[in-house]
Amino acid sequence: MTDRIREFLRNRRDDGPIMVVDLEVVAANFAKFARALPDTRVFYAVKANPAPEILNLLAEMGSCFDCASVVEIEQALATGVSADRISFGNTIKKEKDIARALQYGVRLFAVDCEPEVEKIGRQAEIIGAKDVKVFCRFLQDCEGAEWPLSRKFGCAAEMAPRVLEHAHRLGLQAYGLSFHVGSQQTNMGAWDQALTTASSIFATLAERGIELKMVNMGGGFPTKYLKDVPAAEAYGAAIFEALTKHFGNRLPETIIEPGRGMVGNAGIIESEVVLISKKSDEDEVRWVYLDIGKFHGLAETMDEAIRYPIRTERDGDETAPCVLAGPTCDSVDVMYEKKPYDLPVSLSIGDKVLIEATGAYTTTYSTVGFNGFAPLASVCI
């Protein structure tokens, strides 16, 4: 926890859980990515945390933006950036949203199948949009990621040339490829495996007269939770080595899309203990209920995939295992039960609990009024 967050929480009087983001940490993270891969453009994944203060800061620092919807595109444009600094990175788009993005001036679109290409082609023709670029996302093994991605996004690598050829025939620019190695990826070799595939697809299309120009290397860059993770510089070195290994002196344009790695460690949630109980007299494990749960910011505790660092004002006292749960009348609102957390035996109702490294995927995963609980409040300092 930074001194700035500590001071803010010390002086806070409002009730209810809140997520506090230190913008100085966000700025430092952006600078690290920029230094680690100086020839790669950073497209911040807006979905991680779209707070206007974060977007404005990153825009001023030169960041581009990876957007999943028209609303996110509008949020990025509201910072004053030009549309050429925005990618419509969702492979699943309504045709009216494609049209809106084109009208805003966005020209870079993700695809993973021919029907999506056809939607973009139709709208580009109707609007008269020129130089519309598409990049095809291919499926990639997410081994080593704490939050592996499903097969929802991307196509088999052998399909990608066909998808991009179809774009070329429709008058779109077959611009490049993208992949994602899985969220919270600690295996730096994952990018090498993906770039092996990318270089092969580049070669296949070159033989067919189509010269790809860009590789979007996605996100996956981790933030520190309970385990140490490699620094941005280490990822940069590994990625650059893989690029030169597979592309030689003809390096493509490159993009990265950090989200969690940009803002995760910049945020802390302050919550409160609502209840502590046991399910039987013989039960050795206490249940600790907080005023925040899966439905109000902690959705990534699903299957206990993300295990946040937890601090209390009684740290240092004797500890015992606890199940951690949220306050709602929903039986799935349990964060950690399979592997309980060791928390102080002296922990009491009304105590404050700090959930660290929660700057990403918390406010945006919070429901609007489920069970009458307010969405997770947030502030940037």
Automatic annotation (TrEMBL):
A Pfam family that this protein carries is: Orn_Arg_deC_N
Say which enzyme class the record assigns. lyase
Q: Which UniProt keywords apply?
A: Lyase, Pyridoxal phosphate
Domain (Orn/DAP/Arg decarboxylase 2 N-terminal): give its ranges. 26-263
Catalytic residues in the record: C329 (proton donor)
N6-(pyridoxal phosphate)lysine: residues bearing it: K47
Q: Could you give a GO molecular-function term held by this entry?
A: ornithine decarboxylase activity
The pathway entry for this protein reads as: Amine and polyamine biosynthesis; putrescine biosynthesis via L-ornithine pathway; putrescine from L-ornithine: step 1/1
EC numbers on record: 4.1.1.17
Tell me the Gene Ontology biological-process terms attached to this UniProt entry: putrescine biosynthetic process from arginine, via ornithine
Reaction catalysed? L-ornithine + H(+) = putrescine + CO2
Q: Cofactor(s) for this protein?
A: pyridoxal 5'-phosphate
Q: Which PANTHER family match?
A: ARGININE/DIAMINOPIMELATE/ORNITHINE DECARBOXYLASE, ORNITHINE DECARBOXYLASE 1-RELATED
- What's this protein's name? ornithine decarboxylase
Annotated source species: Phreatobacter cathodiphilus
